[in-house]
Amino acid sequence: MRNFLYTAKPAAAIRRVFTLSNRLQRWPHHQPSLALINSSLRRTIVFVSDAKAEVHKSRLPRNLEIKSELVWLIDEMGEVVGPLEPSRILKNFDFQNKSFVTVSENYGEDGQYPLCKIMDRAVVRRSELAALRNKQKKKQIQTKTIELTWVVEPHDLETKLRRMKEFLLKGSRVKILVKPKKKGKVIAVPDAENILQRIKDSVNEVGGKEMKPLEGQVLGLMEVTYESKKP
User: Is CATH 1.25.40 what the domain over 63-137 is classified as, yes or no?
Assistant: First the structure.
């Protein structure tokens, strides 16, 4: 059975549970098990908890976590003032709507005190979650490797270029590895350069771009990595 209760947002998950409750009163024969409902909510809670833990692990100290006796503060005009005592800044502080965040842990010529700023709590949260999503997205990007030789046959080259374009369109990175053939047929430098141009043209056709500069030499071992412009 499809788990239609699962969602990354706890508020949405709870709303679906209450919606489901109303539906069950009208259609009692369509009843998923209570275990399914509990399992969906548990996964939602775990997802949110893991996201919070990941953000907390990677961010700089804030609010009462700031232990420095003095800090530099970016005021509302964008000017740096201080150094000031954090206890004075946090006296009668609106923790519900504001966050006292560390911008840099070692600010100034001597780097003795951190640089801090008072920010809207909702803005900070959105920024952190967006950064976390981007980080997770980058982890999910796969790198595909396509190997060929300088004496590749035309139909084989077409096949490999088609596969490369398919990978790029799906958001994968593609590493092209061109190797010399140990024995047999050899080609001239202009023909080898034509192969490289064919590869570049195919990448441009699908809106790809060079991720790592080309390494190696023509007719030798050569490697280049491409990625989608919008992964």
Answer: no
